[in-house]
Amino acid sequence: MNMTEDMNSASAQAAKLKNVIDATSKIILGKSTAIKLALACIIAKGHLLIEDTPGVGKTTLAHTLAKVLGLQYQRIQFTSDLLPADILGVSVYNRDTSKFDFHQGPIFSNVLLADEINRATPRTQSALLEAMAEHQVTIDNETRTLPDPFFVIATQNPLNQIGTFPLPESQLDRFLMRIELGYPDSTAERELLNGKDRKELLEEIEAVLSAAELIQLQKELEQVHVADAILDYLQDLLEFSRASGDYLHGLSPRAGIAVLSAAKAWAYIHAHQHVLPEDIQAILPSVIGHRLQFNYEVSDKEVLKPAEHLIQQVPIP
Question: What is the mean pLDDT of residues 137-166?
Fold first, then answer.
């Protein structure tokens, strides 16, 4: 493929992605950065954790993305009495055949919305681990492959709210990104108050992509170039997190791979032919915010988050 064909292909893909962002922005108002981060997470084949207070549109964003991307969607309301079988499925004895028939759970979909995931017990939360890591589940000693593509989009309430259970670190690490939505600005909120109900608008919205087109976009992501200087910068970030003593634990190699994948997706969405340092900085808070913690008490005057501190301390080569 020559340079002109490369440019035409990049332009076509950028137009498709813009259509996805525009369609989602009609439902989720005033949150273009959060929408782009969520889309980058999906293109990078990652799972997404949306953490915020109730009522700011976490569930709506997940449902909108699934519909706009043309993906099969299932939602589970996580509660304290939810069992792993409610997610994975269960085998039921069939008297006619004298065999057990497996009834698939909602995890057998392209997008599983785990709504308020931290209201379920750790045992139930852990039922998602194999699915998130391997895109398969093992039930009754039989391994069953999940549909392709497969994503978990989970919403989480703040841990200081009643009835929540913190996610185990091993499960948090399975989420490529954690994002927040926050409250809308005054203009977006006025439009929300004056406009149609989001549920009605969601019923009217149509798919912009298909599952096959999304898989193709994921494959094209591998073509985004990463220069040695960018890898140097990424390794400097990783090394500082491990050697500085500022953090409780340094970033793992898997975290480094996650940063690179997300940065490539962010660059791809913005039609960059190669990853820039700014691409890494744009996604870094969402990728490492749930993986990195200060090893000391942050004072009330401290306004920096771990990722912001990391960006400030490590210069661009």
Answer: 83
Domain residue spans in the chain? 3-223, 224-317
Q: How far apart are CA 206 and CA 278, in angstroms?
A: 33
Query: Cβ neighbours of residue 88 under 8 Å, at least 6 residues apart?
Result: 105, 107, 127, 131, 137, 139
pLDDT band at 297 (very low <50, low <70, confident <90, very high): low
Residue 315 CB neighbour total at 10 angstroms: 9
Strands 151-156 and 111-115, sheet pairing: parallel
- Name the residue with tokens 């990783």: 238
Task: Tell me: pLDDT of 302 over 90.
Answer: no
The pLDDT assigned to 200 comes to 83
Q: How many residues does the chain have?
A: 317
pLDDT 10s digits, 64-85: 999 999 999 899 998 888 888 9
Question: What is the distance between the alpha carbons of residues 247 and 243, in angstroms, rounded to a whole number?
Answer: 9
Regarding the domain with residue range 3-223, which homologous superfamily does it belong to in the CATH classification? P-loop containing nucleotide triphosphate hydrolases (3.40.50.300)
Q: What's the burial of 132, exposed, middle or buried (CB within 10 Å: 0-12/13-18/19+)?
A: buried
Right CATH for 224-317 from 1.10.287.40, 1.20.120.610, 3.30.930.10, 1.10.8.80: 1.10.8.80
**Residue pair 168/126 in contact by the 8 Å Cβ criterion:** yes
Beta bridge mates, 102: 91
**Do 283 and 260 contact (CB within 8 A), yes or no?**
no
How far is residue 155's CA from residue 161's CA, in Å, rounded to a whole number? Answer: 14
d(CA 282, CA 277): 9
- Tens of pLDDT along 252-281? 999 999 999 999 999 999 988 899 999 999
Are 89 and 66 a contacting pair, CB within 8 Å? no
| Lookup result for tokens 């009330």 | 300
